[in-house]
Amino acid sequence: MKWLLLIFSIFKPFFGSSSEHQMVNPIAEFKEMIKENAMKVVGVFAAASALATLFAAGLVIIAVDVGAQYDQNAYVYFSSMIMMGITLSVLSLIIAFGAAKIISNENTKPAPREVLQSVGTSHPLQDALALLIHDFVKEREMKRAQAEEYAAERSQRAATDERYHPSEESTHH
């Protein structure tokens, strides 16, 4: 759904009225979505690799012990090594299925209504606040520029007055 909103936000300015202004940057949204999903994919891949390694290690322990027992005694009995291999394999499976269940429950939770409304479109109050802040910043910049211009003009005027009207101290020497 987020992908559709992202694509829609790219094409919306071409079909919307000209008085609307777009506050969402689709490129930034796309980069953020990739960054969030990339971290999830890397985490899931690392966890799955670790669990698969534990499961395989358990099976290898079982196979090595069963093979050694059969070669030595010509029969297989239940030993602590076999029990450790079975425990390691079963534990990795329990963790994997538990994590899969948690992830599936997390994905089925409905997203908050405000989050879905804010993706792809901006709220009118956000636009008004952004315009107000923008207007305030521009006004401050304009006042600062006027103050600098006035100070430069005053210092230039003072320098020209000093040249044409020397002070009384300099004429009495």
UniProtKB/TrEMBL annotation:
<keyword id="KW-0812">Transmembrane</keyword>
<protein>
    <submittedName>
        <fullName>Uncharacterized protein</fullName>
    </submittedName>
</protein>
<feature type="region of interest" description="Disordered">
    <location>
        <begin position="147"/>
        <end position="173"/>
    </location>
</feature>
<feature type="transmembrane region" description="Helical">
    <location>
        <begin position="76"/>
        <end position="100"/>
    </location>
</feature>
<keyword id="KW-1133">Transmembrane helix</keyword>
<keyword id="KW-0472">Membrane</keyword>
<feature type="transmembrane region" description="Helical">
    <location>
        <begin position="40"/>
        <end position="64"/>
    </location>
</feature>
